[in-house]
């Protein structure tokens, strides 16, 4: 059935009755998302063409929104003239985290519909709504790395922590390492053994040497260190850190940090914190010189922390376990649960 509606320019726009809408079906409504099956198909959508009463050239767009949304600002995937569209696990995972802003590790509920369009003079026709639930996963990227064997872990490169090259500079490596020995000594190795390039003390402060006779690198005592290495300039630096959470959502707001406690078993920093509706960030040594947020400067809001990133929003007040995980270089993460 075709109805006519008045438009701003005194034109008439055809509006289809609801009974003419396309029918949408989904191959699954509970999606299993893991990195291991990232390339597999997560869900396939099929729909029947709408009835226009004439031979119309119809194009389709799939619209995705949170279950609580109203499709006023959906994420859209243009499909063209096809009446089916499959999505891989990786595509759905990215859609949830990067587009709909869900948090990795937390269940997400999403609704989907297909929009049919035949031109500007005919109002788009939307299908009924299909829904799915899924828990997005954190995409952990394995960056090129150096190993950090030392007396604090038995001088074993194979089991040593890593520093990784995860910035635009392939010669620049970084990572956080928990050092427990009272008089720490270590080296950087290119392999998980001693058969590659090994970086030791270059003599002058903050310098490295690849000579087989180079001495061990040293720190002033135990602690949780950020280590940086540049294999081109043969330099390195260290920063001993403790961590806290700060922000309008915390008890001390932006005035001072709520300290986090390190757990050597999990390799994470955490605390139980009474949070208000507001925002938080993480920072080292109660100073803004080293701080983490999520997103900003072109980075997605994806639960992977970014240096100097945007404030992290707390939508619901409550007492939460706030956790900071810096154990995977380039994949620094947090959770508020």
UniProtKB/TrEMBL annotation:
MF (Gene Ontology): starch binding
GO cellular component: outer membrane
Transmembrane segments annotated in the record for this chain: none
Highest taxon of source: Bacteria
Matches recorded under InterPro entries: SusE, SusF/SusE-like_C
CDD domains in the record: CBM_SusE-F_like, CBM_SusE-F_like_u1
SusE outer membrane protein domain boundaries: 9-115
Residue ranges annotated for the Outer membrane protein SusF/SusE-like C-terminal domain, each copy included: 245-328
Protein name per UniProt: SusE outer membrane protein domain-containing protein
Organism encoding this protein: Solirubrum puertoriconensis
Lineage of producing organism: Bacteria, Pseudomonadati, Bacteroidota, Cytophagia, Cytophagales
């Amino acid at each position: 059935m075709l109805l006519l509606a008045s438009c701003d320019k005194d034109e008439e726009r055809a509006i289809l009755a609801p009974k003419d809408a396309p029918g949408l079906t989904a191959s699954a409504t509970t999606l299993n998302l893991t990195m291991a099956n990232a390339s597999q198909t997560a869900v396939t959508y099929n729909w029947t063409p709408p009835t226009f009463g004439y031979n119309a050239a119809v194009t389709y767009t799939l619209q995705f929104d949170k279950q609580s949304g109203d499709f006023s600002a959906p994420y859209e995937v243009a499909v063209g003239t096809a009446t089916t569209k499959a999505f891989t696990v990786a595509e759905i995972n990215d859609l949830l985290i990067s587009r709909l802003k869900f948090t990795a590790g937390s269940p997400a509920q999403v609704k989907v519909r297909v929009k049919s369009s035949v031109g500007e003079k005919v109002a788009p026709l939307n299908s009924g709504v299909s829904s799915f639930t899924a828990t997005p996963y954190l995409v952990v990227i394995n960056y090129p790395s150096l190993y950090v064997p030392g007396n604090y872990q038995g001088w074993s490169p194979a089991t040593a922590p890593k520093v990784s090259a995860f910035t635009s500079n392939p010669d620049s490596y970084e990572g956080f390492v928990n050092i427990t020995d009272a008089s720490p000594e270590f080296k950087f190795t290119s392999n998980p053994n001693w058969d590659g390039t090994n970086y030791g003390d270059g003599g002058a402060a903050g310098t490295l040497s690849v000579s087989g006779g180079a001495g061990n690198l040293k720190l002033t005592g135990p602690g949780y260190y950020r280590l940086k290495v540049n294999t081109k300039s043969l330099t390195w630096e260290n920063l001993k850190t403790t961590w806290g959470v700060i922000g309008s959502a915390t008890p001390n707001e932006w005035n001072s940090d709520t300290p986090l406690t390190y757990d050597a078993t999990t390799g994470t920093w955490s605390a139980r914190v009474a949070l208000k509706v507001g925002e938080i960030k993480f920072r080292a040594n109660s100073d803004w010189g080293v701080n983490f947020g999520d997103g900003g400067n072109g980075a997605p809001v994806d639960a992977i922390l970014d240096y100097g990133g945007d404030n992290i929003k707390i939508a619901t007040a409550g007492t939460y376990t706030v956790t900071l995980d810096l154990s995977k270089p380039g994949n620094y993460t947090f959770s508020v649960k």
